[in-house]
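Hi R.,

Quick one: here's the THAP-type domain-containing protein sequence you asked about.
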Amino acid sequence: MDSAESYKKGGGNSCAVNSCTNNRRKLQMWKKSMCELHNELHNDCPCLIPYKFHLMPSDELTKLEWIKAINRKTLPKHVYVCSEHFLDGAPSKRNPFPKLKLGYDSKVTPGRRKLARCETAVKKLKLSYENDSGDDNVSDSTGFEALDISVNNDNETYPEATCSFNVAYPETVTKSTQYDETDFLIYDDHPYSEKWSDMQTTSTQTKLLLTEEKGVQSKIEGGTMSANTNIVTDSDALLYTGVTKEVFFTLVELLREDNQFNFQLDIADQLLLVLMRLKLHLIFDDLGRRFGISKSLACKLFNSWMPALAEQLKGLVVWLPRETIRACIPESFRENYPRTTVIIDCAETFIQRPTNLKSRSETYSNYKSHNTAKYLVGIAPHGHIMFISRAFGGRASDKFIVEKSGFCQYLLPGDEVMADRGFTIDNLLFPLRVKLNIPAFTKCKPQLSNEDLTTTRRIARVRIHVKILSSTVPVSSLKNFDDILLVCSALVNLRSDLIREPDEFAEI
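And here's the predicted structure, written out as C-alpha cells:
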C-alpha cells in the first residue's frame, strides 16, 4: 500500500503538519538504536524521547484551532501532531494548539498566563508572614535550600535530567498563624476597600447567597415591579406586555384557574415577567431586580411558563373558515384579489452562533449572513395570524419549509395564496387546484411587460411583511423557541385589527 492510500485511511502513524517527517516508524528505529552516551539501546537508556505524538482533542473550539493551525485541505481520520510543534512540548492550558514549524510563515505568539484573582491578598499575606517571623533561617529556607537539587561548583557536575518538584516548606513557625480581619484590609480612598457597614451583616450576606445560588423563593429588598401597581392604564399594559389592560387581566384569571406551579410570586406578577421578557427582551438579571427575585428564579419561571402558555393560547392561532375570511377581507383586496385566502412569508430571527459545527452550518442563512431560525407564517388578508410553523434552520429554503410544515393541508380548491418571489411552489399547489399570486420574474427577460409590472405593484401594495421576533435569541432559549413563536402569534391576534378601513380612521 502506498503512502497516499495510507494517509486517506488515517492510520495516525505520522505527524499531520505540513513538511514534518516525524512518524512512529522513525521513533521505533530510534528506540532500537544504540545510545552513544550510555552505550545501550535508547529503549533502555534514560535519554529523553525525541518527540511524542498528541491526538487532536474532541472539544469543538479547540479542534477548530488545531485545524486552522495545521492548515491542510484534507486531514486523516485520526489527526496526530508531534511535540516539536508545541511551545510547551505538549498541549497545555496556555498553549493548547500547535504553533511551531507549521510549514508556512506564521507569527508565534505565546499564550497569556492565567491571572489569579486573589494575587494581591496572597502577596500581602506573604509579606506579613515574613515580617512576623523575624528569623533569618526561615527566610533562607524558602530559597534554593528548599529544593532537592544539589550543585557542586568544584566539579561542575549536574544531576541527570532529574528534578524534585516537592518544595520543602518551613516546618513550624513560632508565632500563631491566626490573623484578624484588619490584617487583610487596605484602607484608601476607593469605596470598595472600605469596611462593611452595619447594614451589611453576616445574615444579609447569607440571605443573598442562598437566594442567588439555591434559587430560594424569597424576595430581595428593592424589587418594586408589580402588576397591580404598574399596569394601571392601557398604555402601561401595551408598553410592558404588548396587550391591553383588559386582555392582560383576563389572561391572569385564565391562568389562575389552571396554575400548576408553586412560585411565591403572584400569578399576575409571573405573567408580567414573562410578557416583559418577550416584549422588551430584558435580561434575567434585570427582571430579577425589578421583581425582587434572583436571576436563576426568573429564568426558571420563564422556562416553566412558556410550554403552559403555549398550551393555553394555541386555540387563538387557528385557520379561519373561508366565509369568515371573505367577510373580513379589506377593501384593497376586494378590488384585485378577492379570492385571497392567506398571505405567507418566511420570517428569520437571529440566533446566537452554535458551537456545534453541524448546527452552525444548518442554521446559517446566506440571505441574512447570520445564524437564524426560519419559520413560515400564514396571515389572513385582514391581518389575523392563522398559521405558524415550527422553527427550521436558516439554511432551509422557502419551498422546503412549505412542504414539511403541513401548510398545504389547510388549503381548499379555489383558494388563492399570495407570497413573495422566493416561493416557487406551483408544483405543490397545482394538484390542490390552488392559485399562487407572486410578483413577476425578470429571468430571461430584458424588462417586465406592462401587465407584469402592474401585477407586481398591486401585490406589493397589499402584501404584509411578517416579523415576530426582532432580537437575537440565545442558544439556551432555542428549546422553547416553538412555544415562544406560538405565544407571540396568539398575543398578536389579541391586539386590535392590523388593517383598518378608511371609515374607521374617520371615526377615530
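Residues 99 and 210 are 45 Å apart (CA to CA).

Cheers,
M.
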